[in-house]
Amino acid sequence: MLFSGLFDLPWWGHVAAALALTHVTIAAVTIYLHRCQAHRALDLHPAVSHFFRLWLWLTTGMVTREWAAVHRKHHAKCETPEDPHSPRIYGINRVLWLGVVLYVKECAHPETLERYGRGTPDDWIERNVYGKFAIYGVFITLAADLVLFGAVPGALIWLTQMAWIPFWAAGVINGLGHYWGYRHWPTPDASTNIVPWGILIGGEELHNNHHAYPTSAKLSSKWYELDVGWLYIRILEALGLATVKHVAPTPRLTAPKPAVDPDTLEAVIRYRYDVLARYARMLHELERARLAQMLPKSRTLQTMYSMRHELTAVWDRSKAPREQLVRQLQDWCARAEASGIRPLVEFSQRLRSYA
Fold first, then answer.
1. Apex 285 CA angle, 280 and 290, nearest 5
2. What is the CA radius of gyration of the chain?
3. 117 pLDDT tier (thresholds 50, 70, 90)
4. CB of 273 within 8 A of CB of 187?
5. 27 and 202 Cβ atoms separated by less than 8 Å
6. What does the angle CA 171 – CA 174 – CA 177 come to, to the nearest 5 degrees?
7. N or C: which end of the chain has fewer CB within 10 A?
8. Which of the four pLDDT bands, split at 50, 70 and 90, describes residue 287?
9. What is the DSSP string of 107-159?
10. Dihedral of CA 82/83/89/93: which sign?
11. Phi and psi torsions of 197, nearest 5°
12. Cα dist. 330→109, 326, 341 in Å?
């Protein structure tokens, strides 16, 4: 009985079991490690939080503080030599196939854990079990898989569990998610949405959406995108086991104000990626394909491009005094509407409509 396992399943049953077990791990990573711990996008009931901690200890050996610290540093230093796993720095092949090695290497830096790992669990069980004996959990899982499914199927299911996160999360998301795919938002990094259906990796496939709004508990932003992690969060919320703290802002428009005021400034900064996306579409309508040839000959296009850079400078300097930024945005709108360039005039009016 021990050799054949407690569950005598057909081959497809073992495949289904492996997919179900790895999917729970993916849910634990995206809901608990990523959205809850690294970005504080939601709060989880202590029972749910501890279940995810236990499950991750058993199936990955990852420590919450280490994972959160490495991921926060990735956002803080994205696409620079200090980014722990950027394919723009290390190359796509290294990140895709050896992403877990880069993760482990960064975890060995005490300064990374000290600076970026704050606020993660630091109770007795984290210090004395999950953190101190991180690797032991996966061997408990190996023993359980052998008992439940038999020697060969159990070993294969265990190997699948061990390889799933290192490949899909550390490799595919950190690699392809900054190398290949489509983009909704003109973020300053190279993040992409790999596919619009976030099932295999719990919604993490929508990586460009995440980099645009990192503190959002919801990763989908278009009607045709599916974030299965968000579905699970809503179920937990309905059961009183989760509280969503942040989601990506939806632009709210009013009639254009007579002049830019501090509220307009705050709204423009808040909706900056919507602003840039609409600006990009406006440029596309002006025959973007011929832009390289037309730019030196067109004063209109030169004006629009230079003013685009001036507009982005408003939120790049968002730590400056509010009064100064309001004056800069007021001046930008005044010059745009005085330019006589119809798209700029209409765009400035839309800016004054953000509320």
1. 95
2. 24
3. very high
4. yes
5. yes
6. 110
7. N
8. low
9. HT-HHHHHHH-TTS--SHHIIIIITTTTTHHHHHHHHHHHHHH-HHHHHHHHH
10. positive
11. -110, 100
12. 46, 6, 17
Residues 6+ apart with CB under 8 A from 228: 198, 199, 202, 203
Q: How far is CA 72 from CA 97, 113, 213, 215, in A?
A: 22, 10, 14, 11
Place of tokens 């696409």: 79
Q: Are 221 and 209 in contact (CB under 8 A)?
A: yes
* DSSP assigned state of 102: H
Report the candidate in 44, 13, 12 with the shortest Cα–Cα distance to residue 27.
44
Asked if 44 and 236 touch (Cβ cutoff 8 Å), the reply is yes
* CB atoms inside a 10 Å sphere around CB 283: 16
Instruction: State residue 318's pLDDT score.
Output: 66
Pairing of strands 242-244, 197-198: unpaired
Give, as one character, the DSSP assignment of residue 253: B
Whether the full predicted model's pTM is greater than 0.85, yes or no, is: no
Is residue 166 within 8 A of residue 100, CB to CB? The reply is yes
Classify residue 193 by its DSSP letter.
B
Nearest to 158 by CA among 173, 172, 170, 147: 147
Q: Are 208 and 181 in contact (CB under 8 A)?
A: yes
Taking residue 124's Cβ as centre, other Cβ atoms within 10 Å add up to: 7
Q: How far is CA 320 from CA 49, 192, 208, 280, in A?
A: 38, 30, 27, 26
Sorted by sequence, the CB contacts under 8 Å of residue 187 that are 6+ apart come out as 208, 211, 212, 273
The two beta strands, 226-227 and 197-198, are parallel
Pairing of strands 242-244, 226-227: unpaired
- Which tokens go with 153? 């199927």
Q: How far apart are CA 105 and CA 101, in angstroms?
A: 6
